[in-house]
Design brief:
two-stranded antiparallel sheet; 2% strand
Length: 599
């Protein structure tokens, strides 16, 4: 396509909202709160914000500048910088393809839960009755109703990745619906995406605000909020805290996928992307903190309910064992009476010692859960205790859908934009080509709706992007700083903005960000090697919980393919360009020698 014919955003606000909709995703809701919980609550904000300015904002700025200058997708943009770097864009497309394959299954689960929210009693609120109508299903009793609904009703999960089975019809239909909506959002390219982002970028904030008001008024919510903002400063001495802060910033902003380059390529040439890079980065990080307050309010409510239920079970056990009057022991005096009865009746107390539970609010709050476990189990369990739980369930899963769909716009755009820059594709209509991409991803994604599909989902989530993105962004910043040249890059920015970037940006691109990325890259490889055989969480229905299981040989081979397939695009493309140039050079030499002989 000619650059002059390239479509563009109707106004700069559409571009900002598209970036916000893409960057603010499910990771802000379920990954950041988990990291806060793991690394000292409010203390985690210190390394997080430091890494935002050392790594996040400069790399975000860099990708926007490349996209706006070249006005091409990731493949075309990096090829324009150097033909040997075309593989960087290709690696981004492959990584985005992997992400698209499994990311929309999360949206399918959200649809599944949303549709099941319109019931008088939420289906994950209590265990279903067994076929004999004599009591609840045993698997559900061993687990919890929320776990049973997720693993058995939603996933119909097998006992291992080696389990076979057909497609879950309900999940397949939800996945198809998710891809149909994704297609409608991108059907006319940037023209339709620009309209959709007004809704996908703003409505989740309305739901989060409603949840914030409801959350802080829940019983025990302040216990969770206080836990979040009580820093454990000793965690700052742990290198893992800093590594996780850097990694979270990196993935939360969506660097390396090619989505930001694609979005920026539709900007006007003189658009002020510098200001937009700072604004979007701050909005993204602010949303993570805002979502964490909501999440910890829910954590506090759930932890308090579990703690008080534990106290109530202990109270009843003591009353029944020692034949005490009903009002003898209250919730506030359980610990006092436990010590008193243990001292007075040691022999009787010893008989029930194995039945007594350890009730501790702090340990309840310390229980860290991330990912699908937080989104579909912990939140669902908290929602079922809320008054008018159906309303809160609908609001929550609508918010998850919009966050997921907003991110999918960027993920699919990262595939479509670079491919449309090729002449062979540019002659196809937007509707046809975008439809073919969505159909291709849907057909491959059906594998995630099988009984072992969740294990493949985990594999793609753990290994499909992390390693390759670290490598891609490291090559990007080195290529701009030392191959293309910072001075040349400065002139390009001056040409677009009317001024050169200040010293802060140049120091970050030239030294700080590359060193941080090299460090993260080495640590990731070291951890992978030291970790031994890769493992996953397999659902054991006999125990009613997940157990750590090693991947079989074919799973380990597939993990290796995931790690290598995208990264190998960079050296293979460079080798192909080198061989092609050498062959062309030899051909010219031969032609010159033939002409000399003829003469």
């Amino acid at each position: 396509m000619e650059k002059d014919a390239r479509p563009s955003w109707d106004n700069p606000m559409q571009f900002v909202l598209a970036c916000v909709s893409y960057a603010v995703g499910l990771g802000n809701v379920w990954r950041f709160p988990y990291l806060c919980q793991m690394h000292g609550g409010g203390g985690f904000l210190i390394p997080y914000l430091i890494m935002l300015f050392l790594e996040g904002v400069p790399l975000f700025y860099l990708e926007l500048a490349i996209g706006q200058k070249m006005r091409l997708g990731s493949i075309g943009a990096w090829t324009a910088i150097s033909p040997y770097l075309g593989g960087v864009g290709l690696a981004s497309v492959v990584t985005s393809l992997y992400l698209c394959l499994y990311y929309n299954i999360i949206n399918a689960w959200s649809f599944w839960y949303l549709f099941h929210s319109f019931q008088s009693v939420l289906p994950w609120a209590e265990c279903p009755v067994n076929s004999n109508r004599t009591g609840p299903i045993e698997e559900c009793e061993r687990a919890t109703p929320t776990q049973y609904f997720f693993y058995r009703e939603t996933l119909d999960i097998s006992s291992s990745i080696e389990g076979n089975g057909g497609v879950h019809t309900g999940q397949a239909l939800c996945l198809m619906l998710a891809w149909v909506i994704t297609y409608l959002f991108i059907v006319r390219g940037v023209k339709s995406t620009g309209k959709v982002v007004y809704f996908t970028a703003t409505f989740p904030y309305l739901v989060l605000f409603i949840y914030l008001i409801r959350g802080v008024t829940l019983h025990g919510a302040m216990n969770g909020v206080k836990y979040m903002f009580t820093p454990k400063m000793e965690q700052l001495a742990d290198p893992t805290t800093w590594i996780n802060a850097a990694t979270q910033i990196f993935f939360s902003l969506g660097l390396g996928f090619g989505s930001l380059i694609a979005f920026a390529s539709y900007n006007q040439y003189n658009n002020n992307f510098e200001h937009q890079a700072i604004v979007v980065s701050l909005i993204n990080s602010g949303t993570s903190i805002f979502a964490s307050i909501v999440t910890f309010a829910i954590y506090g409510f759930k932890a308090t309910i579990n703690y008080e239920n534990c106290l109530e079970r202990t109270r009843i056990l003591l009353l029944n064992t020692f034949n005490l009057a009903e009002d003898t022991i209250t919730m506030d005096t359980v610990f006092e009476w436990t010590e008193k009865l243990n001292a007075t009746y040691p022999q009787q107390f010893a008989e029930i010692a194995n039945k007594l539970e350890t009730c501790d609010l702090e340990s309840e709050l310390d229980t860290a859960v991330e990912g699908t476990g937080l989104a579909f189990i912990v939140y669902s369990e908290a929602i079922k205790y809320m008054p008018v739980s159906q309303l809160w369930s609908v609001l929550y899963f609508v918010m998850l859908l919009l966050l997921g769909m907003g991110s999918m716009l960027g993920n699919v755009t990262a595939i479509i934009t670079p491919l449309r820059d090729f002449k062979i594709v540019s002659c196809m209509s937007n509707e046809l080509f975008n439809g073919l991409v969505c159909l291709f991803c849907l057909l491959l994604g059906l594998g995630f709706t099988t009984p072992s599909g969740n294990y493949w989902f985990t594999m793609f989530n753990d290994y499909g992007a992390t390693f390759s993105l670290l490598f891609i962004v490291l090559i990007e910043v080195i290529a701009v700083s030392y191959i293309y040249g910072i001075r040349r890059f400065e002139k390009d920015i001056e040409d677009m903005l009317g001024h050169r970037p200040n010293w802060y940006w140049k120091i970050m691109w030239g030294f700080t960000s590359p060193i941080l990325l090299i460090g993260l890259f080495i640590i990731y490889i070291a951890k992978y090697i030291q970790g031994g055989t890769p493992t996953y969480q397999a659902w054991n229905k006999e125990l009613g919980k997940s157990v750590v299981t090693e991947y079989p040989v074919f799973g380990q081979v597939f993990i290796g393919l995931l790690l290598v397939s995208s990264v190998s695009c960079v050296p293979l493309t460079a080798l192909y360009v080198f061989c092609r140039k050498r062959k062309r050079g030899n051909h010219h030499k031969w032609e010159r020698s033939v002409n000399t002989v003829s003469t």
